[in-house]
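Technical note accompanying the year-one report. For the benefit of new consortium partners, we illustrate the data format agreed upon in the data management plan: each record pairs a sequence with a structure-token string. No post-processing was applied to the example shown here.
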Amino acid sequence: MGLFLLDMATKMLTLQYISSASLESYTGMGTGSEIALFQNFLGIDCTITYAINKGAAWGFFGSFPYLLLALRLVLIGSLFLYLVYFQVPQNYRLPLTLILSGALGNVCDFFLYGHVIDMIHFVFWGYDYPVFNVADSLIFVGTCMILFNTIRHNEKVT
């Protein structure tokens, strides 16, 4: 619950303090107003930037917002039911909860704003990484944890 609230708070603060009314579509890069968190730290730049994402990761399915919403709602419902009604192994509970929290955060954005608000922008050694948000980070970390747990479990079995 705390991570979901952190996600929602960062989006509200970004909307209130950094948003640019002229920004109409997600470009995958920081545009509009920015706040630099750090620059050229080991070749990495990080800014807080307001960006609109009308699709999923990297704007995919942006032309099908209601289909994407339906898929997200099915995923959230299925994941919630799985966590509540099945014996989920302990090492998968946290990763699935992170994914569920992130998915809920992005779906709430759709209902509150009509799109997802992204704000974290990194440039790694010249590579301009697409703008993302806390919810996206939760989904990514949860997915990585599941992959790590699965690989670790399979190594012990064989």
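Partners are asked to follow this layout when depositing records. The beta strands are 34-41, 44-53, 116-124, 127-128.
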